[in-house]
Amino acid sequence: MTDAITLRESTPADIAFLQTLYPAAFPDEDLLPLVRSLLELPDVLSLLALARGVPAGHAVFTPGTVGGHAAPVALLGPVAVLPRHQCQGIGSTLIRGGRTRLEAAGTARLLVLGDPAYYGRHGFAATSDIRPPYDLPREWAPAWQSLSLGGDDAPMNGTLRVPGPWCNPALWA
Ligand SMILES: CC(C)(COP(=O)(O)OP(=O)(O)OC[C@H]1O[C@@H](n2cnc3c(N)ncnc32)[C@H](O)[C@@H]1OP(=O)(O)O)[C@@H](O)C(=O)NCCC(=O)NCCS
Predict the structure, then answer these.
(1) What pLDDT digit, counting tens, does each position of 74-97 carry?
(2) What's the per-residue H, E or C state across 121-142?
């Protein structure tokens, strides 16, 4: 099935699809205001996945920095796949595709707040060296995860700085 999945960067014309996708993938949350704000940021990587040419999933990668480190990092989220297309490799293709593009751009780490059972499959592991912009409930600590990119395992300590919409504590706790 994965050979039928293609990726491209989203365009403003994709907003209609995103307005369908996010309520379907997250029926208990309204992520559209966050997604719309993220898409207005410069340098955000917004990847659309197409299944046999039809939009089926989306992921956003927001550039940031950690503490005083010069190396760029990125925050993954949200990731969403239409329910009827889930478990067909689309989420994995989005994560791999973003990772490849970010590695090529020199990004050193990819951070995510999400289910370790899913992101662990992609090599993410819980981190306490890189702290989220806001304190998380203690029980969420395993969900705050990091992935080294491009073979860069140099230690990185500090707080993640990400722009605009992510500066809302409600998104983090
Ligand atoms: C999570 C999500 C993005 C995964 O995308 P997907 O295209 O369905 O995932 P893939 O096809 O690449 O991988 C499917 C595998 O991951 C597993 N998986 C999916 N969500 C999982 C989770 N939360 N925990 C553990 N495993 C999970 C599936 O069971 C499946 O396992 P299998 O390969 O052993 O059968 C998608 O299911 C989705 O949009 N869910 C609702 C929104 C959401 O939770 N987004 C992530 C948080 S930002």
Answers:
(1) 999 999 999 999 999 999 999 999
(2) HHCCEECCCEECCCCCCHHHHH
Assess whether the C-beta atom of 60 lies below 6 angstroms from ligand 1: no
**Ligand 1 pocket mutation pick from 34, 79, 86, 113 by most atoms within 8 angstroms of CB:** 86
Average pLDDT, the chain: 95
Ligand 1 within 6 A of CB of 148: no
pLDDT of 167 strictly over 80 = yes
Calpha distance 22→7 (Å, rounded) = 18
pTM of the model: 0.95
Distance CA 27, CA 48 (A): 20
pLDDT score of 1 more than 60: no
The domain made up of 2-165 is a member of CATH 3.40.190.10: no
Beta carbon of 31 within 6 Å of any ligand 1 atom: no
Q: Where are the chain's structural domains? A: 2-165
